[in-house]
Amino acid sequence: MGRGKVELKRIENKISRQVTFSKRRSGLVKKAHEISVLCDAEVALIVFSTKGKLFHYSTHSSMERILERHERYSYAEKRLNGTDSEPKDDRSLEYPKLMSKIELLQRNIKRCVGEELDPLSLRELLSLEQQLDTALKRIRTRKNQVMHESLSELQKKEKLLLVQNNMLAKQLKENEKIVTERSQSQLEQHHLVQDSSALVLPVPSLTIGGPFQANGSIGEEDDGRGGGARRNPPMPSWLIRHIS
């Protein structure tokens, strides 16, 4: 007894509709894979669920490559049929192409950060993991290169600072030597000035009556042998006449 013909119509029950969608989607992907292997054909399958979730399948060549090939063939076919005579058709074809590229890039970015991984198969997950590993190796290589360049630059700066430090230390020693020599020279000049001032002889006193007072004071002093004061010697006659 053969299988009965199923009437194609929308399933009203949400649960039954979701189960049927999962089964038919798996079968559709299986059939696409079989035709690609058996017939060596490039197959691209794109399915959007009622909730807007994307499910897709592509052969060994990427989905983007197959879509671009489809657009080129569609555009060439329109040119041959004469339905693409106006320039606005070029723009109308370019817009969905750009939008598809934008969506693909956005989806790849989300997958690279670990989002929207549920629709991916095991092969696609392995491919994504390999891409991330390759990108990580490139990032690490670039990081090591930047660190090496930074280290080399810092070493050059260190050598330059050491040279400048040595020059400043040498200049500082020369300045200290000059200051020390100047201090010693000033100290020697000061000693010479003091020595020259010590060699100057005192000027004798010219006070009038100094010898007479000295003689008188000497005559009045006790000679140590008598108890009285000594008398002054008599004045010469010429001095008496001169005073009178």
Automatic annotation (TrEMBL):
Cross-referenced InterPro entries: MADS-box/MEF2_TF, MEF2-like_N, TF_Kbox, TF_MADSbox, TF_MADSbox_sf
PROSITE patterns: K_BOX, MADS_BOX_1, MADS_BOX_2
Domain of life: Eukaryota
Residue ranges annotated for the K-box domain, each copy included: 88-178
Keywords: DNA-binding, Nucleus, Transcription, Transcription regulation
CDD domains, alphabetized: MADS_MEF2_like (cd00265)
Single GO MF descriptor: DNA binding
GO cellular component terms, semicolon-separated: nucleus
SUPFAM superfamilies: SRF-like
Protein location: Nucleus
Chain intervals for the UniProt region annotation (Disordered): 211-244
Chief site of localization: nucleus
Domain MADS-box: start-end pairs: 1-61
Record-linked PANTHER family: SERUM RESPONSE FACTOR HOMOLOG
Job of this protein: Probable transcription factor.
The name this protein goes by in its record: Uncharacterized protein
